[in-house]
Design brief:
Order of helices and strands: HHHHHHHHEEEEEEEEHHHHHH
Largest sheet: 8 strands, mixed
Number of strands: 8
Distance between the termini: 43 Å
Structural class: alpha+beta
Amino acid sequence: MSVLADVVIPQPEPDLRPEELITRAAAMRDHLREEQVATEDRGTFSPETHEMFRSAGFYRTLLPRRFGGYEFDVTTFVRMVIEIARGCPGSGWCLCLAAGHGLQIAGLFNERVQVDALAPDGEFAAPMRGVPMGTATRVPGEGWQIDGTWDYCSGSPYATHAIVAVRLVEGDVPAGEGLALVPRKGWILMDDWRQRAFGMRGSGSNSIFLDATVVPDDYVILGSLLQFDGGLETPGYELHGNPMYAGHPMGYLQLEITAILVGCAYAALDEYERIISTKTMPGPNPVARSANHDFQRYWGVAAGKIRAAEEVLLGMSAYYLELCRQSVEAGRRFDAERLMSINASTHHAVNLAWEAVELLFRTSGTSEGGTNGTRMQRYYRDISTARTNVGLQHETFAERYAQVHFGLEGVPLG
């Protein structure tokens, strides 16, 4: 037996179950709401909140059991993220896009790299930027030298590592694309996020800078993250025996963002309920707005849209896991069209969440949605900013989806 095979990290709570993890997330809602202003000001959640997340096991949700993780499924993870984002969408974004890539460290990298990254304590959090914004240059006898600046590295403030797409260079010759794992000591966190964005100001979407950072050969894997056909190898399945670790990243990544925005929509619904329960109608006989048919209708329409969005997300999370299982059983890569159907469906879950928040914002009144510093305005800013993400442009994606269905050559992502 190899020395690597002897490395096993115990779980902090071996008896922890998925429902308890989700309950813990929901229990933090009041704390996260109270921290929203401070979270926006610093650009991420506080060290104290990070410790709460760490102690609750959120960062370990998708990590393999062998290395101290709980190895819960993707559906459990997105349910946990919904609850955190319901308390603070920015915190949900920052946590999700750091903790969520436990799936990639466990699936895409070999055993030695996983041992390096996760031993001795099983602590791992990493932003993942799939657009190659820098280079990895082969250094004979040493590995790869990574150089560049990657923006929008959401989840970076408390990260132990970063996973970044790179343009490969060997002997001054371009050699395709890769994905590099870089330990925290190898990159500089840039203070360029606070107050920069219209919304999601607490998401920790800082840039990171790498200058001549050298990593071992197997810290860089070959291939592009941003493709549905083919893709990256998944040695993690052979290592851990869980089909989830054979999953294709492009089917999974959209689930992360959708979970955050469903949580954001629930946050807006909670705030709307507070508003219409405490504010009264004008006139000689003031009654709570919640007793008025118009506000009842607004709440009901929004609640229905959000619930529908959540059901699409949960259904697609289960479908993703089913595709993982089928791919392993059939011994072949994912079918591009079936994989794309996850994005095509969850795009409309996001649209439903947006429609709900827009309705709630619009009918909440100028003293709420139209006033700086209110939670309703914050939720509107957060979801509006999220919808500018290139991955959520559903019309463009729909065209590519149809091209694959009809056997036509589509435009490569990137």
